Amino acid sequence: MAANILIVEDDVSIAELLRDYLEINGMTTEMAHTGPSGLQKALDGHFDLVLLDIMLPGMDGFEVLRHIRENQETPVLLVSARREDIDKIRGLGLGADDYITKPFSPGELVARVRAHLARFQRLTGNGVKREGILHMRGLSVDPDARAVTVEGKPVQLTVKEYELLLFLLRNPNKVFSKDVLFDRIWGMEAFGDAATVTVHIGKLREKIESDPKNPQYIETVWGAGYRFR
After folding, report:
1. 130-142 residue pLDDT tens
2. Do the beta carbons of residue 48 and residue 5 sit within 8 Å?
3. Are 184 and 168 within 8 A, CB to CB?
4. Same domain, 85 and 190
5. Cβ(218)–Cβ(229) below 8 Å
6. Residue 18: in which H helix or E strand, if any?
7. 3-class secondary structure for 160-187?
């Protein structure tokens, strides 16, 4: 079945161009041209990925992303002409899976969309070998159900937060640099740098640590990276 992509872009000509490139590559699309209508479609529809512009009328892309993440884990790629690092860090911190800066080549767009679709399918798809629940001092992760609990209480993570936690948990006591973690979790095709990893580690600690400033699970090894202790 073809992947179904939601394009939320206020510039109709750009939205139609994105639609054409994706449909030429075998995907189906729907479009929305305002923040509120894009959010409504994202929450009501069944999409495999959302391409979300930041500058939207009615509600900006950051706010749309925040509401999407409160309800679902569909991959979201932010699209913007804004190149400031603070926007990229904010978007990734809110749970975006990638940040694409205009102008971009059609090939780059399609490659990133396909890469994130494949990652999400590997993470949630059927047919993979079942794995037992992972336990560590009150923290439990069920890879098959994608369920995380701390002291028996459910914890809601974004897709990247979950992937990062699962990777570290599967490799306890091993130190991984920020560059290695970015490569393993986001892949070379995605936008990002060390700040991306730092932001997500901080978000993870806020959700799973009783005292994020003195973490018992994800430890900072100064000058080297992070490890699951």
Report:
1. 457 787 888 888 8
2. yes
3. no
4. no
5. yes
6. helix 12-24
7. HHHHHHHHHHHCCCCCECHHHHHHHHCC
Residue 172: which of 204, 221, 217, 139 has the closest Cα? 217
In a domain, 69, yes or no: yes
Q: Is the dihedral of CA 120, 125, 128, 134 positive or negative?
A: positive
Q: How many domains does the chain have?
A: 2
Q: Which structure tokens are listed for 191?
A: 């936008």
State pTM to two decimals: 0.60
Can you give the C-alpha Rg of the chain in angstroms?
Answer: 18
Domain assignment present for 129: no
Is 53 within 8 Å of 61 (Cβ atoms)? yes
- CATH code for position 200: 1.10.10.10
In the block, tokens 């706010």 appear at 63
Last residue of a domain, one of 124, 152, 167: 124
